[in-house]
Design brief:
Blueprint (H helix, E strand, L loop, with lengths): L6 H12 L4 E4 L1 H7 L8 E4 L3 H8 L3 E4 L4 E6 L2 E7 L1 E3 L11 E3 L3 H5 L9 E4 L3 E4 L3 H7 L1 E2 L5 H7 L2 H13 L2 E2 L1 H10 L8 H12 L9 H4 L3 H4 L4 H14 L17 H9 L4 H10 L4 H14 L7 H9 L3 H13 L5 H13 L12 H6 L6 H16 L6 H15 L1
Length: about 400
Amino acid sequence: MRIEMPYEAEWIIEKIRSHGFEAFAVGGCVRDTLLGRKPGDWDITTSAKPEEVKQIFGKTVDTGLQHGTVTIIKNRKGYEVTTYRIDGEYHDGRHPDSVEFTSNLKEDLKRRDFTINAMAYSHETGIVDEFGGMEDLKNGVIRCVGLAHDRFTEDALRILRAIRFAAQLGFSIEKETYRAIGEIAPNLKKVSKERIQTEFTKLLLSDYPEKAVMADETGISPYVADGFGEVFDAEREWLTRTGACGAYGFEELKSLPAEKSVRWAGFLRHLPSGRIKQILKALKLDNETIDNATVMTAAAAVPFAPEKAEIRKQLSRMTDYQFDGCLLLKELNGEKTEEIRRLKKEITDDGDCVSLKGLAVGGADLLAAGIPQGKEFGEILSWMLSLVLEDPALNRKEILLEKLRERRDRQN
C-alpha cells in the first residue's frame, strides 16, 4: 500500500534516509490517511539522533531536544522529527522521567498509546504495524498498545484521549482498555485542567459527542472537574421528566453546529447558570466561551413571547451569536422557534435599534441638553433604549430629546 504524503514530508524522510538513517511518517498522520481523513500534522520518527538530524538539515528549531524532537521548516511549514526512543519511568503520571534513544523502531512504537497510533510508514517499507493497528482500524476499536493499565498509569491523559478518539472516529473501546480507564481514573488528578478541557472540547466538537457518556460510565467524571457528575444526573432527570427515549440525550448534540460555545452550552444546558459558569471556569475555558455558554443557557431557560418588542429586549441583552445559540438550545429542548426566527429576521432587516450603540441620541446630545456627566447619564440612555425597544419609531433624536424634556418636567 502506498500512502500519499505532502512533498515536504517526503523530502525530509528521503533526505534522512540518504544519510544512512531510517525515517518514517508515524502516528496520527498514518492513522488518518488510512481512514480517508486529512491529517492535521505529519510527524516523522527516525533512527538519527537529534544532533545528527540538525547536521543533516543545518537550520532546525529545537522544540523538544530532551525528548529527541527537532522541527524542520520547509516551505514555511513545520515538521517535527523525533528520534526513536524508550521512555523511562513516569513518576508524575504524565511525563517520562528520562528517555533513552534507540535504533529500534519497534521499541519506539511500543511506547505509544493506542495501536491505531502506533503505525509507521515509508515508501520503501510500506506500513509498519507491529501491534495490530490495521486490524483495529478495520474493526473500529480503540485498544492500548500492550497492557492498558500500564499505558494509563504512565500518562493519565491517555484516559481522556481514548474517549476522545472514540468520539472523533465513532469507534468502540476494547474491553480491557475500557476497564482500565475506570481503574486508573483517579490519576486524572495529575493532569492539568487545561489539558483535560482540551480533550473534552475535542470530544464535544466531534461527530459523536454522545460518547461523552463514557465519562460517567467509566467513573472519571469526578476527576474532570468539581460537580461534573451533575451534568449526567441533570440529563437523566430531564429525560425522565420529558419522557424522552434513551439512557442519555447527548446524541442530540450532534445536531448543533460544531462550535465550542454552542456544544458546551448544549452539553451543560440542564444545569443552573451559576453551576455552568463554575464548571467552565474550573476547566479553564476562555472567557468568551464562558460568557457565550452561560448567556445562551440562561436565555434558553426563559420563555420568549413571539412578539417583536420581547425579541428586541432579548436581543439587547446578548450578542446576535448568543441569541442564535439560545434558539438552538430551545430547539434541542423541543421548543418551536420558527415564529421567533421570522420576527428576528424582520427586526434585523428593518434595522431596529437593539443596543445603546444604535440609539439616535448619544452622550454629546445629553451634554448639549444640559445633563451633567455622571450616574444619570447612563440611566437616561438606558431609559431611552427601553422606549425604542418597545417602539422603534421613537429612535429619532428630536423625538427622544422631547421625551427627555417631558420626563424632566414631570420630575420637577
